[in-house]
Amino acid sequence: MKVRADVVALLRQGETNRAISRATGAAPQTVARYRQALGLPPTPLGHFTGNTLQSRFDARTEPLPGGHMRWTGALTSRGTPTVSYGRRQWSGLRMAFVLR
């Protein structure tokens, strides 16, 4: 089976099948097959396993010199950093603002 690196990365970050499908355009059934092939358990009740906004932000960023951060998580089709939290999509900028 050919696997898409973007889908695998989001699966390993703990995203739900539906959130990955929305972020990447892959069919939810395809995401579920990847999850099973990788031996990853289904997320409980379809929710991300990290339970705080901070944990989700930290899982998708890496620090850079000078106090800056690099986004390593999912991007929208327009290239905007995005993450699902609290039953809605958050931009990386909004998350950073709220957390700061």
Explain what the structure shows.
By secondary structure, this protein is α+β, with helices and mostly antiparallel strands. The longest helix is centred in the N-terminal third of the chain and has 10 residues, at 28-37. A hairpin with a 2-residue loop joins strand 3 and strand 4 (88-91). The protein has helices at residues 5-13, 17-24, 28-37, 53-59, 92-99; strands spanning 61-63, 69-71, 82-85, 88-91. Mean pLDDT is 83; it is low at 45-49. The strands form 2 sheets. Strands 1-2 form a two-stranded antiparallel ribbon. A two-stranded antiparallel sheet has the order 3-4. It folds into 2 domains: 5-46; 53-99, no CATH class. Helix content is 42%, strand content 14%. Helix 1 runs antiparallel to helix 2 and helix 2 packs across helix 3.
Topology:
Blueprint: H1 5-13, H2 17-24, H3 28-37, H4 53-59, E1 61-63, E2 69-71, E3 82-85, E4 88-91, H5 92-99
Antiparallel strand pairs: 1-2, 3-4
Series of H and E elements = HHHHEEEEH
Helix content: 40-55%
Structure summary, number of beta strands: 4
Any idea what the radius of gyration is? 14 Å
Q: Please state how the strands of the largest beta sheet are arranged side by side.
A: 1-2
Summarize the structure.
The chain has 5 helices and 4 strands, in the order H-H-H-H-E-E-E-E-H. The N and C termini lie far apart (42 Å). The model is unreliable at 45-49 (pLDDT under 50).
Q: Can you give keywords for this protein?
A:
about 100 residues, alpha+beta, 2 domains, two-stranded antiparallel ribbon, 4 strands, about 40% helix, elongated
